[in-house]
Description:
The protein is built from 20 helices and 23 strands. The strands form 7 sheets. A 6-stranded mixed beta sheet has the order 6-7-17-13-14-16, sandwiched between helices. Strand 19 and strand 20 form a beta hairpin. The longest helix has 17 residues, at 285-301.
Amino acid sequence: xxxxxTTAPKVSISVASLNRRSDGAxxxxxxxxxxxxxxxxxxxTTSMTAASSxxxxxxxxxxxxxxxxxxxxxxxxxxxxxxxxxxxxxxxxGVEDGVGDLDGPGAMEYLTAVLTSKVYDVALETPLExxxxxxxxxxxxxLVKREDKQPVFSFKIRGxxxxxxKLSQEQLKKGVICSSAGNHAQGVALSAKTxxxxxVIVMPVTTPEIKVIxxxxxxPFLFILYGIFMLSPAGKPISLIQWQSVEAxxxxxxxxxxxxxxxxxxxxxxxxxEGRTFIPPFDHPDIIAGQGTxxxxxxxxxxxxxxxxxxxxxxxxxxxxxxxxxxxxxPEVKIIGVEPSDANAMALSLCxxxxxxxxxxxxxxxxxxxxxxxxxTFRLCRELVDGIVMVSRDAICASIKDMFEEERNILEPAGAxxxxxxxxxxxxxxxxxETVVTIASGANMNFDRLRIVTELADVGRKREAVLATFLxxxxxxxxxxxxxxxxxxxxxFKYRYDSNGREALVMYSVGIYTDDELGAMVERMESSNLxxxxxxxxxxxxxxxxxxxxTGANVLVGIxxxxxxxxxxxxxxxxxxxxxxxxxxxEIYHLLLRNPKV
Length: 598
């Protein structure tokens, strides 16, 4: 039996209230939208960038310009915080322990659509396997649905083919088009090849030659910066592997636009111009029903009771499809979504009671890096899903390593997302003796990311901590530091010399430790007047000081701005066409650019 959760998870959101359910879960409810100070999304006109190889993007007619997008509340991912593994954003459904309106509009239609899906023309019924090592470690029956074994190494083939197989011969003759830089593109390409129709895949423009840009300036200049801003392109970088895989399946790849939104706008305009059918990545009933066959297989393969099915969430197609089927035939089974803490559009939408747009989205788990969830997927999740668990990037990396140790398979970050959420949930609620199901949703991993995944996995499993200590630039200080470290294992060491001769900053990593050991070492440092800060959970520190940008294509920029010009600077930054966020309040900024004793 599961151990009851007796303490409320630490959940904070600016507009939320928390109340306890009778089953021990915790429900986050938000005030009605009328009571929320929402900032409307600007209906900015996006400009199309000329496409590069392999095909030039044809000019589009001016009268096909897209209508202004519907204004959505804009929120930041950081506005929703919760303890790792705690269940948040449980939708209020009017009944305390109910599972939503199972007999509402479309319930039977979705069940029928899943049962009659034609996905098995191209998709496999993937195995549901026991993860023995994880089961033993957690004390539960930990099952993994192996969607990474699909022909395109992702579940996405199911929804794409299910929709395309229902097109008429006339529609197939005119061809299909989609916008995607990831697994959906491969699903559409394989489906088109199977059905004998022409497919165009539109991806955002990228510059493969430039992997990482590091901007560095001298320390004296940094001391007078107004602030630090994190800049990242509005779209996700395209994997060369994915590009080549799509072309190998016979589809035409078009590169256009600087962001996914621009690529999608172009695809929809070309769809109208050429009479093609647009294949959306998640927000269509046929896509949802196709993904729902994953849930159908799980129910068929399961033996005995199951506590919950954990599902990775991006736009919501997979979890909506699974919930639509499972809640109809096994309503007692919990359906729990898992999102990265910096890409939590569904959790925030459920919490606010309406779809929201993220101001920025983390791109590490790029397969679920979605700013806005679908309308239909949101409706189904609000009715059927039991809540969301949010996890860190480090936890995702640890689950990638777990899966490698179990099966010698390497999942992509989004593919390991539900494993990370299930493990965190089991630990948080002390779950024992229950059966939990997770979904290995994809294995399209870029090889050049493996090193950083390996190192972050140790952080995620608490096998390594990242710290910073200030040492006086005087004789004997390093010896004193070494003595205070004691028997702790130092796995990495970086010494930043202070040219002013005051204090040097030492950044270092501590291997295999317990919380008590780490806390005792930090206390020894502090009691000896050596200021020490734990940076293990600070992504900025790890990205730009430890790994120098290897975890993504972000650029760290320091700009000196006089106080009277701050408003103008922010206005111009907003109009650059790039996402950015100020790091003025980040702890590492204050450590490096301010006097630590102030």
